[in-house]
Amino acid sequence: MSWKKAKKLLGRADPERRQAFVERIQDLLAGAQRDRHLLVYLDEAHIHQDADLGYGWADRGRRLWVASPSPRLSDKLSFYGLYLYNEGQVRLWPYARANGEHTIDVLRRLRAEWPEDKLIVVWDGASYHRAGVVREAATALQIDLVPLPGYSPDFMPVEALGSARMSPIITAIPPPRISADAWLLSRPASITTPAPSPTDSGSRITSIPTKKNFASQSRRGLVQIAIPLLIFVYSN
Fold this sequence. Notes:
- The chain is an alpha/beta fold.
- It has a single domain (15-47, 76-233), classed as Ribonuclease H-like superfamily/Ribonuclease H (Nucleotidyltransferase, domain 5), CATH 3.30.420.10.
- Helix content is 22%, strand content 20%.
- The chain has 5 helices and 8 strands, in the order H-E-E-E-H-E-H-H-E-H-E-E-E.
- The strands form 2 sheets. The chain has a 5-stranded mixed β-sheet. It has a 3-stranded antiparallel β-sheet with strand order 6-8-7, with no helix packed on it.
- A hairpin with a 4-residue loop joins strand 2 and strand 3 (89-95).
- The N and C termini lie far apart (46 Å).
């Protein structure tokens, strides 16, 4: 016996749909590595504006109290997180809430930043992603939408940004390592997050200079994907 951290078994995920997605995303990753299109993973994180309880120094024998404004459940902020696979970069765009109107605005901002590129956006099945007005806007902007299979958050690399609870230092992460033969498709994929590097405080971005297409630097293939670290520092 050994002490292990439990991993989530995706009991409601459909193995056949996951298999189909793996096959499709392999082609999309290969195309991005050859500059055929810009591949973007998009997901939202919803942050409740309350005190975040962690660890800190306190007098021995006394409780460590953190003042809370007792916000309402509706007092939250949404972040649209975009992982630009070709560029090896992350965008964090805050909005009051995630809905159809703001999702369309995100797609427009994405198209404005890359007006000439063929854009492919991979995202989950949130209701505002599936809304007719959003899909019509994506068509008008010439953005192809690729939905994730249901109950498969392990296929979304941006998911780790939300699970980190938007900590002061957020690191860009590589996409899942896609290898259909290596997975039991009913199990979650493994996503490795690089450790954060020291950086000065404040709202700014520190990055390692890179080529335009991060994914195609050495035509590495789909199983072993490594990218230089980008540090995003968010502060109020």
